[in-house]
Amino acid sequence: MLSNLQQRLFSSIESFARTLEVHKRSIEKATAKDQNHPLSLLTEGLSRDSDMAELEGVHTDDEDTDEVEKAYHAEIESASEATGVSPSERRKALLDQITDITSSARYAPDARILKLLDWMRKHQCEGLGTPGSQAAKAGAEWSDNRVIIFTEYETTLRYIRDMLQAFIAGTENADQRIEIFYGATPTDKREAIKHAFNTDPTKHPVRILLATDAAREGLNLQAYCQHLFHFDIPWNPSRLEQRNGRIDRKLQPADEVFCHYFRYIQRREDRILATIVRKTETIKEELGSLSQILENKVFSTLRRGIRRSEIDTLTASIEDASDDSEKQATIADELETQRERNEELKLQIDALQRQLDQSRKSLHFKTSAFKTALSSSLKLSGFPELVENETGEIDFPVDLSARNIDPTWSTTLDSLRTPPKDGKRNYQWRKDAAIRPVTFTPPDTIDNETVQLHLGHRISQRLLSRFLSQGFVHHDLSRACFAQSDDKIPRVVLLGKLGLYGPGASRLHEEIITVTARWLPENERTSGLTPYARDAEARTMQILEEAMFNISGTDELSPQVHKQLTTCMAADVEALLPHLQERGEAAQEAAQKRLEDRARIESDAMTNILEAQKKRVLTALKKHEDPNQPLLFDIEAADEKKQLEENMRYWRKWLEGVDLELEREPARIRDFYQVKTTRIEPVGLVYLWPHD
Predict the structure, then answer these.
(1) Which end of the chain is more exposed for a tag (fewer CB within 10 A), N or C?
(2) Coil, helix or strand for 439?
(3) What are the pLDDT digits (tens) for 165-192?
(4) Phi, psi (rounded to 5 degrees) for 395
């Protein structure tokens, strides 16, 4: 007599045996049909631990189940009669057989792990271990390729981790190759993982990121990774798209990204997964992002699970998700809306590009000149110039260990260190965080290894400040230079600064003004230097700009020329200074006109704001003071009534002073733009000298 426990166990075994028979029959039916499926998915073969029939929502065909159950009992009775063994003993034998099979496969990797290991040997480390034959090659080196492996379940995540750790054990830095990102990962650990995965592989050993769907949003992981595996495929298509979006996004340096999917070609249910993958990609190509119609269709179609007898119908339903005649108008609207968004985005990008180009033109900004200016400032401060290293980066040349260095450089250089994770900028952080190289161009990828220098950067501000001070002090020349050009005529340029200042010496306007002239030796001058007219001056400034960006091709002046120019400097400034004053006065008049226009626009805007606010307050008071006007909420509640009364008192008090504000605030704005002081001063002298 079997115990209750044994009976329940045999019942479970019988159910499992029936499931095995169903899978066997399905494999026989599906293999021929699915063997040459056009979708290029990775894994072939049946899993040793296939558990699809045990998952909630996955149903076997009832007719197949009844048929198998009859066959099962008939086989038990037939075997008992043929061997003389009782049905219970036959069941025990079947249990032993199943136990042996499951025990032998208990710790073996499934087909997906095997395929994953094959890929890793080819793309990451040739020396990985082989299941059942040999361990990993000791000290085997890894390539720079990184990979992300997504799974829906934390138990599966641990299974993948344990399997991979076993097969990479013994390779180079094996204990640092895998990182795990799941729901319980702390915030600081998440940031550390993101930073590590976006660090140059030559500088950080991590190569594999195992993640659940907790990592499917908000992470940019594309800097050094172009491969992603879905160990299992979520039923929600938007999750599938979000996973892929970790590497398939802007600033991805690779020309292609590869998102790999597993499916068992003999398992009929996987045809649904293949259809979801293919349809997701099709809709994404058509709409630019996943269609809500497809997502809703998949949810609606699969909400009752997958029945084997309905697989063909379910597959066709998902395949035709965008072909439903009732949804055509919605699809067209989605397409048009997406096109409008894309067009809007394109217009915004074009506008920003025009603004950038206009700003560069207005500032006469060029990267080469910017770099030269910073190098010149470093040189004047006693430091080496900026020089690119072999990788195209620039090691910043300020050495904090140098003697007599300004101690404030320590905090300035903090902007070149990796920000501290705990926010504490202390001695230990400065000791551990090295100064990163700098670059002058935006990185093509997310890059934590270099710092882009721009006009607003703290380093740039410090170095450029040397050139923002006054160039001439009491007309004593302290800044003059020369540049060489292909033009045959010697020229001279006097640079001046026009400054307009308002109340309290507030700076309202500054601009550089120039006077250019053909340079002549003093013994050849009859009436000093004659400034160029508009066209000749434009040509001179063009020559100056070209010469500024060709400093490397400038030769040293001969001693005779150098002496001649040095002797003439004071006389040249004196000859051109009246013309600079005249140019400055004309520029001042134009600048004052622009300031007056700006004062009028801003004061009118302030008047409009105050008047509109006054109108809204009067309307609110009228509504709440009218006894016949119901309130939007019940004021019987004490706190609500009190708050309303306080608001009304404040509104009345504000109205008492608003008329004064309407007079005072616009006048204050106009007064702010009143020019009280003007200053025109020379700031530099440039000689454009022909090449010998």
Answers:
(1) N
(2) strand
(3) 999 999 999 999 999 999 888 888 888 8
(4) -80, 120
> Is pLDDT above 80 for 525?
yes
Question: pTM for the full model?
Answer: 0.50
370, 455 Cβ separation under 8 angstroms: yes
More confident residue, 308 or 643: 643
Reply yes or no on whether the pLDDT at 664 is more than 90.
yes
Integer CA distances (angstroms), 523 to 517, 528, 560, in order: 16, 10, 15
Burial of 502 per CB tally in 10 Å (0-12, 13-18, 19+) = middle
| CA separation, residue 582 to residues 464, 471, 535 (Å) | 29, 20, 18
Q: Note the pLDDT tens digit of each residue in 573-621.
A: 999 999 999 999 999 999 999 999 999 999 999 999 999 999 999 988 8
pLDDT band at 263 (very low <50, low <70, confident <90, very high): confident
Question: What pLDDT shows up at residue 78?
Answer: 72
Residue with tokens 């007309």: 475
Count the neighbouring beta carbons within 10 Å of the beta carbon of residue 5: 8
Report d(CA 327, CA 321) in Å as an integer.
Answer: 9
Please say whether the beta carbons of 525 and 542 come within 8 A.
no
- Could you give the CA distance from residue 612 to residue 608 in angstroms, rounded to a whole number? 6
- 164 pLDDT higher than 90: yes
Residue type, 294: L
Sign of CA dihedral 311, 316, 319, 323: negative
Q: Which residues pair with 209 in a beta bridge?
A: 148, 179
Give the total residue count for the chain: 692
30 in helix, strand or coil? helix
323 vs 5 pLDDT, higher one: 323
3-state secondary structure string across 515-528: EEEECCCHHHCCCC
Find all residues with CB under 8 Å of 48, minimum gap 6, and list them. 105, 108, 110, 111
CA 12 to chain centre: 52
Integer Cα distance of 270 and 45 in angstroms: 12
Compute the distance between CA of residue 581 and CA of residue 679 in angstroms, rounded to an integer: 10
Which range has highest mean pLDDT (107-121, 229-243, 312-326)? 107-121
DSSP state of 436: P
- Residue in 223, 219, 262 with CA at minimum distance from that of residue 243: 219
CB contact at 8 A, 259 and 230: yes
Q: What is the dihedral of CA 112, 142, 155, 180, to 10 degrees?
A: -140
User: Phi and psi at residue 425, in whole multiples of 5°?
Assistant: -95, 75
End-to-end Cα separation, the chain, in angstroms = 116
Contacts of 214 (CB under 8 A, 6+ apart): 181, 182, 183, 185
Torsion angle of alpha carbons 586, 589, 592, 597, nearest 10°?
A: -110
Cα–Cα–Cα angle for 659, 663, 665, rounded to 5 degrees:
105
Q: Look at the block and give the residue holding tokens 């108008």.
A: 329
Coil vs helix vs strand at 257: coil
CA–CA separation, 610 and 659 (whole Å): 9
Distance, in Å, from the CA atom of 129 to the CA atom of 135, rounded to the nearest integer, reads 4
Mean pLDDT score of the chain: 78
User: If phi over 0 gives left and psi between -120 and 50 gives alpha, with beta otherwise, what is residue 516?
Assistant: beta
Q: What totals of helices (H) and strands (E) does the chain contain, helices first? A: 18, 15
- Residues 221 and 195: their CA atoms lie apart, in Å, by 9
DSSP lists the bridge partners of residue 509 as 500
Q: Which pLDDT belongs to residue 392?
A: 77
Q: Rg (Cα) of the chain, in Å, rounded?
A: 39
The answer to whether 261 touches 318, Cβ cutoff 8 Å, is no
Q: Which residues pair with 230 in a beta bridge?
A: 150, 261
Closest CA to 211 of 273, 165, 147: 147
